Automatic annotation (TrEMBL):
This is Transcriptional regulator, AraC family. The keyword Transcription applies. It holds the Pfam family HTH_18. Residues 187-285 form the HTH araC/xylS-type domain. Keywords: DNA-binding, Transcription, Transcription regulation. The keyword ATP-binding does not apply. One of its GO terms (molecular function) is sequence-specific DNA binding. InterPro entries: AraC-bd (IPR003313), Homeodomain-like_sf (IPR009057), HTH_AraC (IPR018060), HTH_AraC-typ_CS (IPR018062), RmlC-like_jellyroll (IPR014710), RmlC_Cupin_sf (IPR011051).
Length: 289
């Protein structure tokens, strides 16, 4: 297990780091770090965890996460990681808040940048035309170095500070209460649920996994995930159902039972609570594109 809080990926001689990822899976470890991070998925799919947000991810997704916000991208092909097949491709940009010095952010000219940095503490996902433009800008940065790269990164930050095409990910009440031992424990829980969510998971199973009583585990999970364990499992199942409806083109009934739900009525209720639309409306929305 990797350390939850790792050494800065940015060399001391650099203002930022931009690189491509071409790996079997994205780093699947539940972790956080002191850098801001812009992340673009070029290839791959799975489930993305940012703070208390749980959503499926796909090619084209772009997120911006602030310092010390726990996150992981769990690939659908995580079990094939050791085969060294490049299922996952992306672009990641790291930088510190003070990469331009300590004073610029305090100026009137930087007010929008301060605002977007504050929003990133809960995680931001960019959508629609903004995501398309931002993808191109990020790919261009990979080809640059020196001061040209710094100017281009500023262009990216100015662009995202002005757009309105975004969604905030973690809930307003979310705060990172994790210690390193907690990240390892929560990662074990996430991995277990991702492997077993298509069947009924007894609370006692997770209690045994984490060496707790069922009551203690429920309390522990609620504190660190900002939601109940049953709510978390429902989010995983609905995220999987979304992919089945769109990518596998399953009908609503098939997606329901393939995602671990026992009744169609409960599936419809949970789906609407989490996505704010019915499964059929969700499917039709994506069929337009």
């Amino acid at each position: 297990m990797k350390s939850a809080l790792q050494k800065s990926p940015i060399p001391e001689s650099k203002a930022y780091l931009a690189r491509t990822l071409n790996e079997p899976v994205f780093d699947p470890h539940w972790h956080f770090h002191s850098e801001y991070q812009l992340f673009l998925v070029l290839n791959g799919s799975g489930t993305r965890f940012i703070g208390d947000s749980v959503k499926p991810y796909k090619a084209g997704d772009i997120t911006f996460t602030g310092p010390n916000l726990p996150h992981l991208w769990r690939s659908e092909h995580a079990h094939e990681q050791e085969q060294n097949i490049a299922w996952s491709e992306g672009v990641v940009i790291y930088f510190h808040e003070n990469f331009l010095g300590d004073n610029l952010l305090q100026t009137d000219e930087a007010i929008r940048l301060r605002q977007v940095f504050h929003k990133s503490l809960r995680g931001i996902e960019f959508t629609n035309k903004t995501a398309e433009t931002l993808q191109q800008l990020m790919l261009e940065l990979i080809q640059m170095d020196g001061f040209e790269g710094i100017l281009h990164l500023l262009k990216i930050l100015d662009f995202i500070s002005q757009t309105k095409e975004y969604a905030i990910l973690a809930s307003p009440g979310y705060t990172n209460t994790l210690r390193e031992a907690d990240t390892q424990r929560m990662f074990s829980v996430y991995a277990y649920v991702m492997k077993n969510f298509k069947r009924k998971i007894a609370l006692a199973e997770l209690a045994d996994l984490t060496n707790m009583t069922p009551t203690s585990f429920s309390r522990y999970f609620k504190i660190h995930a900002n939601k109940s364990f049953s709510e978390f499992v429902s989010e995983i199942r609905i995220g999987h159902a979304c992919k089945l409806l769109i990518e596998q083109k399953m009908n609503v009934s098939q997606a329901c039972y393939q995602s671990g739900f026992q009744t169609l009525s409960n599936f419809n209720k949970q789906f609407k609570a989490i996505t704010n639309r019915t499964p059929l409306a969700y499917k039709k929305e994506y069929e337009v594109y």
